[in-house]
Amino acid sequence: MLKAGSRVKSHGIRGSVPAGSGAPGSRGNGAATMKKSIIVIEDESDILEVLKYNLEREGYRVRTCRDGDLGLRLVREENPDLVLLDLMLPSLDGIEICRRLREDPVTRGIPVIMLTAKGEESDVVLGLGVGADDYVTKPFSTGELTARIRAVLRRTEHAESDQQRERIERDGVVIDAAKHIVSVDGERVTFTATELRLLHFLASHPGRVFTRDLLLGRAIGEHAFVGDRNIDVHVRSIRKKLGRYRDLLETIRGVGYRFLDEEI
Ligand code: CA
Fold first, then answer.
1. Residue 202, burial from CB neighbour count under 10 angstroms (0-12, 13-18, 19+)
2. Which domains, and CATH codes, for the chain?
3. 219 CA to centre of ligand 1 in angstroms
4. Read out DSSP for 113-124?
5. Is 83 in a helix, a strand, or coil?
6. Residue 226 confidence (pLDDT)
7. pTM of the prediction?
8. Near ion ligand 1, which residues have CB within 5 Å?
9. How confident is the model at residue 222 (pLDDT cuts 50, 70, 90)?
């Protein structure tokens, strides 16, 4: 379950942030006052409480989750600046969560720091193998952890240009999965995470026809919310948002959908 009261609004942080502590600025286009967001997925409540308290004091916006599967959903929904990920979790372990985040163009660029216990070195190797950015061994000091967080955030800011290839341009439509932005004729259009994932997936394979089942598995993921499972509804909504480019998404009767190939 999501922890009750874990939703933290930037204006409602409990405890004071020391003046001049320099709350980290946000990634992307937010105001300078926006805090960087961290999602902590950890099933031990005492560790979770300490982490939340200390990270908020450091000026981060923190959301927490004690379950693997729900944690993965939370990351997909919130698109945070960083994820702190415990290895052993109920329902879905940290390695698997990290692997799935890296498979998805929308979440691929989110830095992940793994929290491991002593004696889990083989898991650390596995975690780094599936794309974790760093790891911290329990028990750790807050100072050590926040230093790692700052270092990883610095590195990923520099690496953001690498994410440019997640950008697809076609006619007047620009899909930037890494930045979670779609624009039509230069106007930014709001897409849900599911719509963005679906459109980006189809546009990454122009001319190729995908069945609804395949799109559910590959583009949306098996852990989609029940309401996410109707592909036709998403396609209708995407077409509406694409306006005069709506025909880029073609219905193949009795089969599924495709994104028009450039040659056609
Ligand atoms: Ca655990």
1. buried
2. 13-157 (3.40.50.2300), 160-259 (1.10.10.10)
3. 29
4. EEEEETT-HHHH
5. strand
6. 55
7. 0.53
8. 43, 86, 88
9. low
